[in-house]
Automatic annotation (TrEMBL):
Pfam families: RHH_1. GO terms for biological process: regulation of DNA-templated transcription. InterPro entries: Arc_rbn_hlx_hlx, CopG. Residues 7-40 form the Ribbon-helix-helix protein CopG domain. This is Ribbon-helix-helix protein, CopG family.
Length: 81
């Protein structure tokens, strides 16, 4: 595991200290957990934005509709067995 050193504003460090005590966690573990959650949030936001961009792209929509038609056909064939 690598070591990382950073500076925080005093008010944020005070909040971190209080929350870490409340949760009985070392500050570095609380920061680690918070950073993991935040990075996952950023990934979700990026994913949502990509879908919004694709929704406005006619080629992407046509490709998706074609794929859904093929999928529906496969379901019908599977049910017919």
């Amino acid at each position: 595991m690598a070591t990382f050193t950073s500076s925080l504003p005093d008010d944020l460090l005070e909040r971190l200290t209080k929350e870490a005590k409340k949760l009985s966690l070392p500050k570095n573990k609380l920061l680690e957990n918070a950073l993991r959650l935040y990075l996952e949030h950023l990934k979700r936001v990026e994913y949502i934005q990509s879908f919004k961009r694709a929704a406005g792209d006619e080629d992407s929509l046509a490709l998706a509709e074609e794929g859904m038609a093929d999928y529906f056909k496969q379901l019908e064939e599977h049910e017919a067995r």
